[in-house]
Amino acid sequence: MRDAVNDALHEELSRDESAYLIGEDVGEAGGSFGVTRGLHDEFGSRRVIDTPISEAAIVGSSAGAGLIGSRPIAEIMYADFMGLAADQVMNQAGLFKYMFGGDVTVPLTVRTVNGGAGFNAAAQHSKSLHGLFMHMPGIRVVLASTPYDAKGLLKSSIRSDDPVLFFEHMELYNREGEVPEESYTIPLGEAAVEREGDDVTVIATQLMLHHALALADSLEGEISLEVISPRTLKPLDCETLVESAKKTGRVVVADESVIQNGPASYIAGRVESAAFYHLEAPVEVIGVDDTPIPFSPALADAVVPGADDIEETIRSLPRL
């Protein structure tokens, strides 16, 4: 996935001279996770820009640049640090189009990293905060779950004329997958049915998607799982999710963010409302309880859900 994101950045910087990359250590250092390696050498310091440690300045300057014709790609090292730039996203970038009567666009992409419990990165470096930005009008929210999706969705995000929050999962950077050599994009707002099945629909994001796919393999012949990646949470492809729910009659939503007012709970509510008379059981939600992510590996494993939690929930469904 690391290379897929790098490819997307390289292709878009090459395609559009108004695009530039900005953030902490994105230049000669190649990014804290090595995602931007080589870009500074090719495009120079005017288009791959290292900044001081100020998330508000990174996002704020990028929002302003978007207003006057540039296409900035801002990197925030960890999603946890987005709190320092929340005002620039919530009260500036997301609202400019509305404040100026639709006469302006803000083609801003903010890349950031969530997850990280498996790296024992502790409370200030492990949160999955994509749900927070679903509450903000004018913002699109995109999740990278596979290398193929990461490249295609990032290219679409960069080309969008609306602000996009693009979340990459720390524990998926080394995940391998097939990516076409030719340039391609994936439309924002289209879910992907990663595996077809008949008994239970599992709607899963990022690392949870891979847990669900592995579980589908292990349960083959016993329980048939249909596994869906929403890919974008805002806009959300409710049609694909609801049609699957109507087919299987049982739904589990798995996401690594908090359950309270979180993405999984929101998806569950939308699906249950639209597919109510087709369901054999209430939609089940898997996520993180209202607690910080612990540093201790044992405690982190207890707090952050995994494949065992998905399997246990599936086996608890009635009439299965």
UniProtKB/TrEMBL annotation:
Its EC number is 1.2.4.-. GO terms for biological process: organic acid metabolic process; sulfur compound biosynthetic process. Its cofactor is thiamine diphosphate. It comes from the Archaea. Keywords: Oxidoreductase, Thiamine pyrophosphate. It holds the Pfam family Transketolase_C. Residues 1-175 form the Transketolase-like pyrimidine-binding domain. Signal peptide: none annotated. It is an enzyme of class 1 (oxidoreductase). One of its GO terms (molecular function) is oxidoreductase activity. This is Alpha-ketoacid dehydrogenase subunit beta. The lineage of its organism: Archaea, Methanobacteriati, Methanobacteriota, Stenosarchaea group, Halobacteria.
